[in-house]
Amino acid sequence: MGSMADDLDIDAMMERFRERAEAVKRRNLPPVGGDERAMFVKQAQTDYMDFALIGDASGELVDGVLTLRIDLRPSEA
Fold it and tell me: What is the separation of C-alpha 30 from the centre of its chain, rounded to a whole number of angstroms?
C-alpha cells in the first residue's frame, strides 16, 4: 500500500479548493434574519477566504512534506 504522498495530486487538490471557494460565493442565504443571518454571512466570508487562499497557493511535495506557498503581497496592477 502506498503512502498518501504517493497518491497526492497537488494540482487537483488546488482545483478542488478553487471550486469550493466559488461554491461559497454562489451559496444561497437561508431564510434567516438578524443575528443568525449575520453569523451565516460572516462564516461564508471566512470559508471563501480560506478556500481561495489555499486554491491560489503553489504546492510542493518534498520528502513526504507538502508545503503550500501563498503570496499575500498586494498585486502591482
Answer: 22
Match 504546492 to its residue by C-alpha cell: 59
Burial (0-12, 13-18, 19+ Cβ within 10 Å), 51:
buried
Percent helix, strand, coil in the chain, to 5, is: 55, 15, 30
- Within its chain, how far is the Cα of 57 from the centroid? 9
**What are the grid coordinates assigned to 74, written together?**
498586494
Decide if 56 contacts 70 (C-beta within 8 A): yes
- Helices 10-26 & 34-55 angle (0-180, nearest 10): 150
Residue 42: pLDDT band (50, 70, 90) is: very high
The C-alpha atoms of residue 50 and residue 32 are separated, in whole angstroms, by 24
Mean pLDDT of 14-30: 92
pTM metric for this prediction: 0.78
